[in-house]
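Input.
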Amino acid sequence: QIASYCMDKLHDHYAIAEQCYIDLTTSLVSQRYERFAYEQLMICSRHAGHTDTLASASARASERWPDDMTFLETTLYVNLLRGHQVEITLERAVRLLEANPDDPMRKIVCAFGYYRLGDLDSAVRQLQGTNLKALAAGRTSTFEGPSVTFAQIISAAGPQMVASGDVALFRQQLALVLDPIKDNAPLLPEERRTLLALRRQADLASH
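Output.
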C-alpha cells in the first residue's frame, strides 16, 4: 500500500516505492504477489532512473518466469544500454525477433545490438516498419526510453541520409520520434543523456 501510494500520489517518490517492492520480492510471505511486485519494481526503477536495479530485477524475473518474454526483453535492452554482453545479448534478441518479427520492442533491441557492434546498416534495416506507438502497450515499460534509442540509431545514420540528399526526410523522422517525449519522461540516465545530446544536435542543425 505504501508503494502504491508513492507511485500514484507522490510521483517524485518512486525511490521509496522501489524499495518497498524490493522488500516485497524478497518476502517469503508475498509469493502470491511476486510477479506483480517484480513488474512494479521495474516500473519504479525506470521512473527513479536506477538502471542497475532495473537490470537486476528484470534478470531475476526472467529467470523466475522464463516463459514471460517481457522480462527477457527488458533484460536484453538494459544489457545493451549498459554495453554489457553485447554479442550474446544480440544473439538472444535475434532469436526473440524471429519468433515475432513485427514486435517493435524486439526490433529496437536487435537494432540496438547491431548498433553497439558498429553494424549501422543492419541496425537501420531492423528499424524499418517499427511501430513506435505500439510500445506504449508494454506492461513494465514506457515508449519514451526505447524511442530515444530508436532516434539514437536514426541519428547515427543521418550522415548517410544527408549524403544521399534526404536532409529534410532525416530531420522529419528525427522530429517525429523526439517531439512526443516530454522533459519529465521516465528515462534512465543513459537514455536521458542521449536525448539531451540529440536535441542539442537538432537545435544546431536548425540554425
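Confidence is low (pLDDT under 50) at residues 1-11.
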